[in-house]
C-alpha cells in the first residue's frame, strides 16, 4: 500500500505531488462509501481523534467530525471558549492533558500561524492542521482540487483565479501551493490593499480587475472579506467592495464560455457573491462541502497508517 511522505498534515507546502494524488485517489474511494446506504467503514475503529478548535468553525469542524465518525473512530471535541485556556492554560499543557487520555490524533485550528508545527515537534500523536491563522488550510485546498477534478476531469492545465481577500486568507496560500503542484495556472485578484506585496514571487499572475480574472479563468475560487482579521480599513466600505469586486450571475452569464464558481464558505451574500451567482448552475459550492468529508476521511485514514 502507498503511504504519505509525512506523519502530519501541517500544510500543502510539506506535501509532494505524489502525496496530493494519493490523498485525492483515496478520497474518491471514500466518496463512494459516503454515498452508499450504509455510510460507515471500520477503518479507524481503534483510533481516538481529538478535534481541538481554538477558533470558531462550522463547516470544517462538522466535516472533520463526520469524516471521523464515518471511519468509526472515537471522537473527542474540544472548544477553547469553554475550557481552561480561558484560565491561562498554555497550548502545550492543554494538548498534553488531552493526550494523557490516550488520544492518537489531533485535528487543530488555531489563530496563530505555525501553531500546528509547534505542536507536531513536541507530541507523539499525528497532527492535522485545520487552519492556522492566515497561514495554511491544507484540507480546504485538497477538497478544492478534488472538486475541480470532479467537475473538469483534471487540475493540470486549468486556469484558476482566486478572487477576494488574499492578504488574510489561509485558503489562498494552500490553494496556490496545491494547484501549482498539480500543474494548474493561478491568478490572484483583488484590491491592491488585499494582495500581499511579493505574492508574484510564488509564480502567480496578479490582477486588480475582476472581469479580467473571470475572462481569463476556467475556475473562479471566490474568498470572503475576513473582517475579523482586519485591524485597519483596507477599503472604504463593503458596498464599494461589492461594486468593484462582487460577482453576479449576469457577469458569469455574459462570459464567452462557462466557468466553474467555487467558495470555501461562509459566503457573505451580497458582498463577494450575489445570491443568484452563488446558487447558479456555475456554482459547485455545495459539492465542495460534500467532497470535504471524503477528502478529510482520506487524510485521517492515510495518516493513521504512518
UniProtKB/TrEMBL annotation:
L-aspartate binds at residues 87, 170, 224. Its EC number is 2.1.3.2. Heterododecamer (2C3:3R2) of six catalytic PyrB chains organized as two trimers (C3), and six regulatory PyrI chains organized as three dimers (R2). InterPro entries: Asp/Orn_carbamoyltranf_P-bd, Asp/Orn_carbamoylTrfase, Asp/Orn_carbamoylTrfase_sf, Asp_carbamoyltransf, Asp_carbamoyltransf_Asp/Orn-bd. GO terms for biological process: 'de novo' pyrimidine nucleobase biosynthetic process; 'de novo' UMP biosynthetic process; amino acid metabolic process. Keywords: Pyrimidine biosynthesis, Transferase. Belongs to the aspartate/ornithine carbamoyltransferase superfamily. ATCase family. Pathway: Pyrimidine metabolism; UMP biosynthesis via de novo pathway; (S)-dihydroorotate from bicarbonate: step 2/3. It is an enzyme of class 2 (transferase). Catalyzes the condensation of carbamoyl phosphate and aspartate to form carbamoyl aspartate and inorganic phosphate, the committed step in the de novo pyrimidine nucleotide biosynthesis pathway. This is Aspartate carbamoyltransferase. Signal peptide: none annotated. The keyword Transferase applies. PANTHER family: ASPARTATE CARBAMOYLTRANSFERASE, ORNITHINE CARBAMOYLTRANSFERASE, MITOCHONDRIAL. Residues 7-149 form the Aspartate/ornithine carbamoyltransferase carbamoyl-P binding domain. It catalyses: carbamoyl phosphate + L-aspartate = N-carbamoyl-L-aspartate + phosphate + H(+). Carbamoyl phosphate binds at residues 59-60, 109, 137, 140, 265-266. SUPFAM superfamilies: Aspartate/ornithine carbamoyltransferase (SSF53671). It comes from Larkinella arboricola. Residues 157-303 form the Aspartate/ornithine carbamoyltransferase Asp/Orn-binding domain. GO terms for molecular function: amino acid binding; aspartate carbamoyltransferase activity.
Amino acid at each position: 500500500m502507498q503511504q504519505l511522505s509525512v506523519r502530519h498534515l501541517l500544510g500543502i507546502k510539506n506535501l509532494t505531488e505524489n502525496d496530493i494524488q494519493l490523498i485525492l485517489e483515496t478520497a474518491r474511494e471514500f466518496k463512494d462509501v459516503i454515498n452508499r446506504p450504509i455510510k460507515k467503514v471500520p477503518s479507524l475503529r481503534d483510533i481516538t481523534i481529538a478535534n481541538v478548535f481554538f477558533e470558531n468553525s462550522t463547516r470544517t469542524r462538522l466535516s472533520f467530525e463526520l469524516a471521523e465518525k464515518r471511519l468509526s473512530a472515537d471522537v473527542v471535541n474540544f472548544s477553547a471558549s469553554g475550557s481552561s485556556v480561558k484560565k491561562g492554560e498554555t497550548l502545550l499543557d492543554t494538548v498534553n492533558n488531552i493526550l494523557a487520555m490516550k488520544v492518537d490524533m489531533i485535528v487543530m485550528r488555531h489563530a496563530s500561524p505555525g501553531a500546528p508545527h509547534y505542536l507536531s515537534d513536541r507530541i507523539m500523536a499525528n497532527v492535522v492542521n485545520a487552519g492556522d491563522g492566515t497561514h495554511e488550510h491544507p484540507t480546504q485546498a485538497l477538497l478544492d482540487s478534488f472538486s475541480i477534478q470532479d467537475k473538469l476531469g483534471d487540475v493540470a492545465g486549468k486556469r484558476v483565479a482566486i478572487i477576494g481577500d488574499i492578504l488574510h486568507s489561509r485558503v489562498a496560500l494552500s490553494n496556490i501551493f496545491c494547484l501549482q503542484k498539480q500543474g494548474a495556472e493561478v491568478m490572484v485578484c483583488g484590491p491592491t490593499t488585499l494582495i500581499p506585496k511579493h505574492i508574484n514571487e510564488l509564480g502567480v499572475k496578479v490582477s486588480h480587475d475582476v472581469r479580467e480574472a473571470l475572462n481569463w479563468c476556467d475556475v473562479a475560487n471566490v474568498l470572503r472579506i475576513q473582517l475579523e482579521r482586519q485591524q485597519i480599513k483596507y477599503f472604504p466600505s463593503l458596498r464599494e467592495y461589492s461594486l468593484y469586486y462582487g460577482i453576479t450571475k449576469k457577469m458569469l452569464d455574459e462570459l464567452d464560455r462557462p466557468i466553474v464558481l467555487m467558495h470555501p464558505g461562509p459566503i457573505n451574500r451580497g458582498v463577494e457573491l450575489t445570491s443568484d451567482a452563488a446558487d447558479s448552475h456555475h456554482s459547485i459550492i455545495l459539492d465542495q462541502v460534500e467532497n470535504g468529508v471524503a477528502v478529510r476521511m482520506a487524510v485521517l485514514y492515510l495518516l493513521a497508517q504512518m
